[in-house]
Request: fold
Amino acid sequence: MFKEDIYFCPYCGIKTNNSICCEICSNELKKFVNKNIGSTEFCDAFTAPFVYEDIVRDAVHNFKFEKRRNYCESFGYFMASCDLFYSDMIISVPSFNNKKKYNTSDLLAKYMSKLLNIRYQRHAVSKIRDTKFQHECDFSKRLSNLNDCFSASPKKLNNLNILICDDIITSGSTIDEVAKACKKSGARNVYAVAFAVSNGAFAECYSGGKNWDVKF
Ligand SMILES: [Zn+2]
Reply:
């Protein structure tokens, strides 16, 4: 007799038989599935399996601010189920001087690299200027807050298709700035995937929905 593995649902903490989520939370998550793909000036396409509401918002909050890294596997699993464009390399959104020890984007990028079998280049992009937290800025200030704060290494990115992994895409300005740095350094296409996306991110840059199903 094999003993069944026991996991705990990262969303509600109950015992479950897999590391992704329990049945109750899976039914909750299904209410917030996102099927839109957007783009920004420099990011050719971005998407996320869920919209940033309710259980999804709480989960991102717990992962990001309460530092509950046990969400990583579940987030990665759902992110990998999106219909992603072909990419040669995964990158994350860096913190200034890489001083942030707990970087959710880095955790997700590392895990996605394993799931998708695409190499993760942690130091391809660096943050060269400190900025305010994006969530502390109102929507109109988000863009100027980040202007030219990232720099990418041409040697590492030249002619490659890049996939940025992050936990949340709110206005799209962070991924746009990272993508801008990548393109300046010769990247061919830059895509982004996050666990959650705010509907606001699609407001001005929506480029037509595509039908795909998030795998549960
Ligand atoms: Zn649960």
In short: The CA atoms of residues 163 and 191 lie 5 Å apart. The mean pLDDT is 89.
